[in-house]
């Protein structure tokens, strides 16, 4: 298992578009992907669970991956979150 904490910077939080992008990308990996916030622990491969978790801008999340390609999955997950998940106003400042 590998894991890392990252802060969500999307102004609107983890809503449909960024959650969809994240879950679609994570489905490309064999590893299990979990996203943990102060609110919930959910599968990173489920758009509905990601949206239901209510993760907002500024929330710190822990992404953990376990499985044959866990390192690659974690690297991609962190890259997505740090880049703003395809949203204007997201990403590192």
What do you see in this structure?
The chain has 93 residues and is an alpha+beta fold. The protein has one domain: 2-Layer Sandwich (Histidine-containing Protein, Chain: A), CATH 3.30.1340. Helix content is 32%, strand content 23%. The protein is built from three helices and four strands; from the N terminus they run βαββαβα. It starts with a strand and ends in an 11-residue tail after the last helix. Residues 1-88 form the HPr domain. This is HPr family phosphocarrier protein. InterPro entries: HPr, HPr-like, HPr-like_sf.
Characteristic terms for this protein:
phosphotransferase system; four-stranded antiparallel β-sheet; Histidine-containing Protein, Chain: A; alpha+beta; 93 residues; 3 helices
Tell me the CATH topology.
Histidine-containing Protein, Chain: A
Number of domains: 1
Distance between the termini: 29 Å
Largest sheet entry: 4 strands, antiparallel
Shape: globular
Discrete helix count: 3
Please provide the count of β strands: 4
- CATH homology superfamily name: HPr-like
CATH architecture: 2-Layer Sandwich
Amount of helix: 25-40%
Q: Strands across the major sheet, in which order?
A: 1-4-2-3
The CATH class is Alpha Beta
Percent strand: 15-25%
Q: Which stretches are poorly predicted, pLDDT < 50 over at least 5 residues?
A: none
Average pLDDT reading: 92
Q: Which structural class fits the helix and strand makeup?
A: alpha+beta
What Rg do the Cα atoms give? 12 Å
Order of helices and strands: EHEEHEH
InterPro entries: HPr, HPr-like, HPr-like_sf
Domain HPr: 1-88
Protein name: HPr family phosphocarrier protein
Keywords: Cytoplasm, Phosphotransferase system
């Amino acid at each position: 298992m590998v894991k890392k904490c990252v802060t969500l910077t999307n102004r609107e939080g983890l809503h449909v578009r960024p959650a969809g992008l994240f879950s679609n990308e994570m489905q490309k990996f064999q590893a299990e992907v979990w996203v943990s916030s102060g609110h919930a622990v959910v599968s990173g491969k489920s758009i509905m669970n990601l949206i239901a978790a209510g993760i907002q801008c500024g929330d710190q999340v822990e992404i953990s991956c376990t499985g044959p390609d866990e390192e690659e999955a974690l690297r991609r997950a962190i890259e997505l979150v740090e880049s703003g998940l395809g949203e204007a106003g997201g990403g590192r400042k």
